[in-house]
Amino acid sequence: MEEGAAESPPAAEKKGAEEEEEDDFGYRLFPDRNKKPQSFLVRSLFTFHNKCQLMLRLTLETNPYARLLLEALKQSGCTVFNDRHFSCENCDGCVSGGFDAATSQIVLCQNNIRQQSHMNRVVTHELIHAFDHCRAHVDWFKNVKHLACSEIRAANLSGDCTLMNEIARFKFGLKGHHQTCVRDRAIRSILAVRKVSKETAEKAVDEVFDACFNDLEPFGRIPHNKADAKRAYRDFQNRDRYHANL
Predict the structure, then answer these.
(1) pTM, to two decimals
(2) Known active-site residue 2
(3) Among 126, 166, 199, 207, which one carries the catalytic annotation?
(4) What is the pLDDT of residues 28-51, one digit of tens each?
(5) From CA 88, how far away is CA 109, in angstroms rounded?
């Protein structure tokens, strides 16, 4: 995760004399989603919230991954506004962020994001979900393959699986390691937000992996580092100028 989508859960079907446990679509990981919003004065007293807002602003203004995605969303008809589409909240200890498709809002876990580099990666990851939500008819809640595809793309394009991040996780590999990381993180994300078996998550990821791994929009390449992301951002801007002159 760092990822996830959520919506009001459907009624659980009965199984025999007992009801199945409802799938909350990952809402349990974001307890502040169901609370009444606090006043600005109250929120401003909490250091985590202030720091989260400051790091978010820096990411949106300076990070090439985020800036490219923001422009791509705007061109797709889904302009992102800081105060409307981002929310700094306290979350479960195992997640850093999530995309709430029911409100088109990105949740940033202020109690778990402590470094700017982490904020950059989380925002990028969730903006990829937002971009997929904008450009395609994604059935986040009933079609696990749709969820798997967006998780594959987010892990592939956000920097989640860069060499340095993998070394920090004490995971090493050479040939095909990037693909292995993307697959593993996509499966973990699905299991975090859906009550499905590991086998179901693995099957969904494997069935859509090649197509979704090779879908590089809007970057046009896998940005393995900031230099790659800056080149992708420049190419995206030039592509827009080219089409404008046709």
Answers:
(1) 0.81
(2) no
(3) 126
(4) 777 766 666 555 555 554 577 889
(5) 6
